[in-house]
Design brief:
The protein has two domains: 62 residues; 179 residues, 2-Layer Sandwich (Alpha-Beta Plaits). A seven-stranded mixed beta sheet has the order 2-3-1-6-7-8-9, with helices on both faces. With 259 residues, the protein is of the alpha+beta class. Helix content is 52%, strand content 19%. The protein has eight helices and nine strands.
Length: 259
């Protein structure tokens, strides 16, 4: 049997064949030779088990990780979101989901090429991970897309907006190399959606994400590099740099309040 044929055999088939061979050796081999043979077979079985575990681990990682950024993917997000909901209901501690788009990724791809776009996505992913706590979770929510998400554990809307504004400000000064002795900058838009233990009607990933996505869309329509949220009076609002003093923010209301 060639090496390629050996590699293609299912692991369970290999295990059965090793077991059958072991039984044959027990019955046909003189007692004085068994000790060395058994030790060799035990080592072979351990190697086989290790290889199977490594294969399972690799497959598990492929199923749960975004291949470009190394972030957890949408499948993991769905599980972690449900887990966060359960924790909130059990402890009363809120969490906030952030829906995030990297602004104008298509422009980067068109002007600098897709390798630069991929570099921007990786740098952006690393940047997000570096600007939240270890207890928070960062996800890439679509392969081939610029959509990301963060679950901020134990954060209400006010705390989450503070975290997001720090991310937005720090991102403005990030320099990304373009692979051609140059660099470029990126920005991002954010949609904020908190989840409280009293939100009995918000129980699914799709529902709370729809709120975050709506806030994100308002932030993008307002000019990007902004934060969309719902204020304490239930009004859709945008946090944006003050054009008269960019180091400060101002809150604007893209939609009139309900009369």
């Amino acid at each position: 049997m060639t090496d390629s044929e050996e590699a293609e055999r299912p692991p369970d088939q290999k295990f059965v064949e090793l077991t059958d061979e072991f039984d044959r050796l027990i019955t046909e081999t003189p007692r004085e030779d068994l000790a060395g043979i058994l030790a060799a077979r035990e080592a072979a079985l351990k190697r086989e088990a290790k290889q199977q575990k490594e294969t399972i681990d690799r497959l598990s990682q492929l199923a749960s990780k975004d291949p470009l950024t190394g972030l957890d993917n949408r499948y993991v997000f769905d599980e972690e979101f449900d887990r966060a909901v359960s924790i909130t209901r059990r402890t009363g501690q809120p969490f906030t989901f952030l829906s995030i788009d990297m602004d104008k990724l298509r422009d980067v791809n068109n002007s600098l090429g897709h390798p630069a776009g991929d570099t921007a996505l990786r740098e952006f992913a690393n940047f997000l991970v570096g600007h939240v706590r270890l207890t928070d979770r960062v996800f890439r929510l679509g392969t081939g897309a610029d959509e990301f998400g963060i679950i901020l554990q134990g954060a209400n809307a006010h705390a989450a907006i503070g975290v997001v504004d720090n991310i937005r400000r720090e991102l403005e000064i990030l320099e990304i190399t373009d692979g051609k002795d140059g660099s470029f900058k990126i920005t991002a838009s954010f949609g904020v959606s908190p989840f409280y233990s009293t939100n009995n009607e918000l129980i699914s990933t799709s529902e709370i994400k729809a709120i975050a996505d709506a806030n994100l869309l308002r932030a993008k329509r307002a000019g990007r590099n902004r934060i969309g949220f719902i204020d304490t009076n239930g009004r859709p609002a945008i946090l944006e740099p003050d054009p008269e003093n960019p180091i400060r923010n101002r809150t604007v209301y893209p939609e009139p309040p309900n009369q």
